[in-house]
Amino acid sequence: MIWYTALVAAVAAERFAELALALRNTRWSLAQGGTEAGRGHYPAMVALHTGLLAACLAETWLAGREFLPVPGWTMVAVVAAAQGLRWWCVRTLGRRWNTRVIVVPGLPLVTGGPYRLLRHPNYVAVAAEGAALPLVHGAWVTAVLFTVLNAALMAVRIRCEDGALARVPEAAVRA
User: Fold this and answer.
1) Which of 137, 139, 130, 162 is nearest to 45 (CA)?
2) Is the separation of the CB atoms in 99 and 19 below 8 Å?
3) Can you give the pLDDT at residue 45?
4) Mean of the pLDDT values across residues 153-175?
5) Residue 167, pLDDT score
6) Quick one: which of 63, 71, 86, 72 has its CA closest to 11?
7) What's the rounded mean pLDDT across residues 71-86?
8) Cβ(38)–Cβ(101) under 8 Å?
9) Beta-strand runs (E) in the chain
10) How far does the chain reach from its first CA to its final CA, in angstroms?
11) Which of 34, 35, 58, 110 could lock onto 29 through a cystine, CB 3.0 to 4.6 A?
């Protein structure tokens, strides 16, 4: 159980690194004239993702969930793959990557890296990690609750992001 706590703590540390990067990128984007959309749902995202980490530990400790090697190690691999996909997105978007929806005028849509394969690959990574991290140590209630709540939140988020990106001038998309 200690190693699982360390895994969740490592994911939490990674989230703090993401937030630091997002803050730096937010400052850059706003300095370039970027505009933010979707401020209303952002606190819910932060709460859900913070709650995921806390619930992973709470369920495993309080419900006495056991580590089952075959599903557990499989889910560790899914968590690692999700991290790889997330950081591929971060690298591909560069300064444009953010935990917020900020569109900088004059910049074309990114269509390289994982974005040539999927419209929203970062959200695939979030969904995979959100289901897999609790299941590493059998926290199936947390996995189900996060998946359902995240799906509802992602419907709002993707609609917001697609709306913001739709306002990018066509000439910039072709650039």
Assistant:
1) 130
2) yes
3) 96
4) 78
5) 80
6) 86
7) 98
8) yes
9) 35-37, 101-103
10) 51
11) 34
pLDDT digits (tens, 9 = 90+) for 26-46: 999 999 999 999 999 999 999
Report the distance separating Cα 92 and Cα 90, nearest Å: 6
What type of residue is 45? M
Give me the mean pLDDT over the 159-173 stretch.
76
Structure tokens, 25: 């990128």
User: Can you tell me which residue has the tokens 């897999």?
Assistant: 132
3-state secondary structure of 38: coil
Residue whose entry in the numeric block shows the structure tokens 């890296």:
113
Q: How confident is the model at residue 169 (pLDDT cuts 50, 70, 90)?
A: low
Residue bearing the bigger pLDDT, 106 or 56: 56
d(CA 124, CA 96): 18
Pair 161, 96: CB distance under 8 Å: no
Q: DSSP assignment of 10-48, as one string?
A: HHHHHHHHHHHHHHHHHHHHHHTT-EEE-TTTHHHHHHH
Tens of pLDDT, residue by residue over 106-131, are 998 899 999 999 999 999 999 999 99
CA nearest 67: which of 136, 130, 8?
136
Cβ contacts of 17 within 8 Å, gap of 6 or more = none
Residue appearing with tokens 């998946």:
147
**What radius of gyration, in Å, describes the C-alpha atoms of the chain?**
17
Looking at residue 25, the DSSP 8-state letter turns out to be H
